[in-house]
Design brief:
Protein name: F-box domain-containing protein
Oligomer: single chain
Strand order of the largest sheet: 6-7-8-9-10-11-12
Strand content: 15-25%
InterPro entries: At1g61320/At1g61330-like (IPR053772), F-box-like_dom_sf (IPR036047), F-box_dom (IPR001810), LRR_At1g61320_AtMIF1 (IPR055357)
Distance between the termini: 37 Å
Pfam family, one: F-box
Number of helices: 12
Helix content: 25-40%
Shape: globular
Radius of gyration: 24 Å
Number of strands: 12
Length: about 400
């Protein structure tokens, strides 16, 4: 990615030389904002600017030129290249020059997990928090666009997380991701810190909470990801809207789900989000306890009065034969005129091997291997025939090579 960006920037710079009528004061490459890929599918106000505050500081150095691998470029361009690198690699590059060190202090993508911090699986709370604190103390706090925190060790004091989020959530932020594995005491995400672009929350019944409360807290949110370890309440149909929401990811984690939970209630999000383009539903469960489509004698529920005109891509991982999940999928297929792609993954979205590779797929539980054939039968019998010819259906099953023996 960095090489492609470099070639593009060099080409832009040559073009600028031929345009002598352009103001010399605009040293930053034209159109750079168009190279920025926003996961939310939009460019925020901070991205539309020609340069960040940190880059303004670099310009004040007199537009210094730096040479690397025989290529001479302004320092601000090298800063941009550095921003494309993963945080750990960018930190290593910062030791090469003062200019790179200045760029590192404004690195836009901060990712904190055991791997990025160089910690092993046995790392304790002190190891994790001290490294995060050290990095943030050496960061200027300017230009942060993506902040990702994944904590697998137990944190007894959630005040650390609050302070890190207060550091990260600034007017230029575009994406916030927080993943806490079995953390106690329970952490309530401080949605009040958000502006209105990106929201991510984790707590009990958060799916219901996101639908009922977030429209008033972040009415202009464009990308929303919500994860729940305990979802017992169905998502309500409400008049409030998320009028700007384009990307929605819902993750459900549990050993088993309550048989009372209704996947079909997630239709409420589609009704609330008229501009929704991408929907991802991740279901992580070891045992499917819902009523199966093959065990039910009742007809599939329908809501034909709700149509979705912008939804293009739908992905459901952990797809199973639960009747309510089949109903949700059928609703999407039958009431979405704009649908282009539907992926139904009967595993948990685990990494797969290639047919000509010696590597093996990520292990799949026996529960998934048992349910997967039933899920495929549900797709073939109840969903596939309703899919328009212009929609690409992709059904993923456990690898026949790695799991041929049922393991």
């Amino acid at each position: 990615m960095a090489l492609l960006a470099l070639n593009r920037l060099i080409s832009i710079r040559r073009e600028r030389r031929r345009r002598r009528n352009k103001a010399r004061s605009k040293r930053f490459p034209l159109g750079l904002s168009a190279l920025h890929l926003s996961e939310g599918g939009s460019i925020t106000k901070s991205v539309r600017r020609k340069y960040s505050p940190c880059q303004q500081d670099d310009d004040s150095q007199g537009g210094k030129m730096m040479t690397n691998s025989g290529v001479t470029l302004p320092e601000d361009i090298w800063s941009y290249i550095l921003s494309l690198m993963p945080m750990r690699d960018a930190a290593r590059a910062a030791s090469l020059s003062r200019a790179f060190l200045r760029s590192w202090r404004c690195h836009p993508n901060l990712t904190f997990n055991e791997d990025a911090l160089g910690l092993n699986d046995n790392a304790c709370e002190t190891d994790f928090t001290s490294k995060v604190d050290h990095i943030l103390k050496n960061h200027s706090g300017i230009g942060v666009k993506r902040f990702k925190l994944s904590v697998h060790c137990k944190l007894d004091n959630c005040d650390y997380i609050d302070s890190w989020l207060q550091f990260a959530i600034t007017p230029g932020i575009e994406e916030i991701t927080v993943m806490l594995s079995g953390n106690k005491p329970q952490f309530n995400f401080p949605c009040s810190l958000f502006s209105d672009k990106i929201a991510y929350s984790i707590r009990s019944n958060i799916i219901c909470y996101a639908r009922s409360d977030l429209p008033s807290i972040v009415p202009n949110v464009e990308t929303l990801a919500v994860a729940s370890h305990c979802e017992m309440v169905d998502t309500p149909m409400l008049p409030t809207k998320l009028l700007y929401l384009k990307h929605l990811t819902i993750s459900l984690f549990a050993w088993t789900f309550s048989r009372a939970y209704d996947y079909f209630s997630l239709v409420s999000f589609f009704d609330a989000s008229p501009l929704l383009e991408v929907f991802v539903l991740d279901i992580y469960q070891e045992s499917m306890e819902h009523e199966s489509i093959f065990e039910s004698s009742s007809h599939l529920r329908q809501m034909p009065e709700y149509h979705h005109e912008h939804l293009k891509s739908v992905t459901i991982s952990g797809f199973c034969s639960a009747k309510r999940l089949v109903e949700l999928t059928c609703h999407i297929v039958e009431n979405t005129t704009s649908l282009e792609r539907l992926e139904l993954d009967t595993t948990h979205g685990n990494a797969r091997c290639s047919e000509d590779s010696s590597d093996e797929c990520f292990p799949v539980s026996q529960g998934v291997l048992t349910e997967s054939p039933r899920a495929v039968l549900a797709i073939r019998g109840y969903i596939e025939g309703k899919i328009p010819t212009n929609v690409k259906l992709n059904v993923l099953e456990p690898c026949s090579r790695c799991h041929a023996g049922g393991g």
